[in-house]
């Protein structure tokens, strides 16, 4: 009896994971309330350093979106509690201010956005439109980055910072992945834990 129950439970979990991966999940109904659109995105040159190691690619094909960070350095903060009863719904990738942020996957910059919580942010809709990658607390955008621009996987798009509600003493990239149903806007989608996608533990 216990074995049959375990098999049924395992099949339900696998079915749910498959459903999430196949996308088409409902999202929120409107843009974030605490956000305001960026009028003039800040851009500064991305610092040039000695050649950095090749970006770390996970088994899912995504790149870890901060140059020089390895899978072993990632921490799963997806379910961590945040203020006002919120759940994190992302992971924080710690790195020194000014460290290059790279596109985890190829796509199109759908929104450059300044918000109270996320600070300077980028929303990139991946090729195919089924996923949006969200990069927040950025110090600066890469020179020339603009909405509607195509970005390639591994392309430098920004630098790590602590804008928004992030502590100035703990610069990091807040990285989120949202599964998008057809027709959903950049502010919608269903949050998916990026940790197993980046750490290769899916």
Describe the protein.
By secondary structure, the protein is α+β, with helices and mostly antiparallel strands. 13% of the residues lie in helices and 28% in strands. It contains two helices and ten strands; from the N terminus they run H-E-E-E-E-E-E-E-E-E-E-H. Strands 1, 2, 3, 4, 5, 6, 7, 8, 9 and 10 form a ten-stranded antiparallel β-sheet that branches. Strand 4 (107-115) and strand 5 form a beta hairpin. The longest helix has 20 residues, at 2-21. The chain is globular. The protein starts with a helix and ends with a helix. Residues 16-51 have low confidence and may be disordered.
Q: Which key phrases capture this entry?
A:
10-stranded antiparallel sheet; globular; 202 residues; 13% helix; alpha+beta
Short characterization:
This protein has 202 residues and is an alpha+beta fold.
The level of helicity is 10-25%
Query: What class, by secondary structure content?
Result: alpha+beta
Output the helix-strand order: HEEEEEEEEEEH
Beta content? 25-35%
Overall morphology: globular
Q: Mind summarizing the main beta sheet?
A: 10 strands, antiparallel
Average pLDDT value?
Answer: 78
Which stretches are low in confidence, meaning pLDDT under 50 for 5 or more residues running? Answer: 16-51
């Amino acid at each position: 009896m216990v074995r049959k129950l375990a098999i049924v439970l395992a099949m339900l979990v696998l079915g749910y994971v498959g459903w999430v991966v196949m996308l088409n999940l409902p999202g929120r109904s409107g843009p974030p309330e605490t956000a305001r659109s960026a009028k003039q995105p800040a851009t500064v040159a991305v610092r040039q350093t000695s050649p950095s190691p090749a970006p770390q690619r996970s088994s899912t094909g995504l790149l870890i979106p901060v140059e020089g960070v390895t899978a072993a350095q990632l921490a799963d903060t997806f379910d961590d509690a945040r203020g006002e009863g919120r759940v994190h719904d992302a992971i924080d990738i710690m790195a020194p201010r000014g460290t290059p942020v790279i596109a985890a996957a190829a796509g199109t910059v759908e929104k450059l956005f300044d918000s109270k919580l996320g600070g300077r942010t980028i929303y990139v809709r991946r090729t195919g439109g089924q996923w949006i990658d969200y990069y927040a607390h950025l110090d600066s955008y890469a020179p020339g980055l603009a909405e509607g621009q195509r970005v390639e996987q591994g392309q430098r798009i920004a630098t790590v910072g602590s804008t928004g509600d992030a502590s100035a003493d703990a610069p990091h990239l807040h990285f989120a992945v949202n599964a998008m149903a057809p027709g959903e806007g950049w502010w919608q989608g269903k949050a998916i834990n990026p940790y197993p996608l980046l750490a290769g533990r899916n």
